[in-house]
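Ops channel
N.P.: pipeline sanity check, posting one input/output pair.
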C-alpha cells in the first residue's frame, strides 16, 4: 500500500520537475528568466569596503567580516577574483 502511494508521488514530482525545467527553458529563450540575483554584486558597499580593509592590512579577516557583515567565504572569493 505504501509503495503504491510512494511510486505515484514520485511520478508526480518527476512530472512537475520536467514541466518546471521546460518552462525555465522557454523563459530563458524569451529573456524573462535570469536566475538568482547575486548577494554581493560589484556595487555592494560592504564587500567593497571589506576588500579595502583587507588590502590595508590593519585588521584580521575575522574582524573585517564581523565589522562589514560579509561572510569570510565571500570575502576570499572577491579577493581571488581581483587577483
Amino acid at each position: 500500500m505504501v509503495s503504491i502511494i510512494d511510486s505515484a508521488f514520485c511520478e508526480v514530482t518527476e512530472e512537475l520537475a520536467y514541466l518546471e525545467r521546460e518552462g525555465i527553458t522557454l523563459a530563458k529563450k524569451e529573456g524573462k528568466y535570469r536566475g538568482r540575483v547575486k548577494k554581493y554584486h560589484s556595487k555592494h558597499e560592504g564587500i567593497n569596503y571589506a576588500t579595502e580593509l583587507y588590502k590595508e592590512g590593519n585588521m584580521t579577516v575575522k574582524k573585517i567580516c564581523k565589522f562589514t557583515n560579509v561572510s569570510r567565504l565571500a570575502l576570499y572569493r572577491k579577493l581571488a577574483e581581483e587577483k
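N.P.: looks fine end to end. The mean pLDDT is 89.
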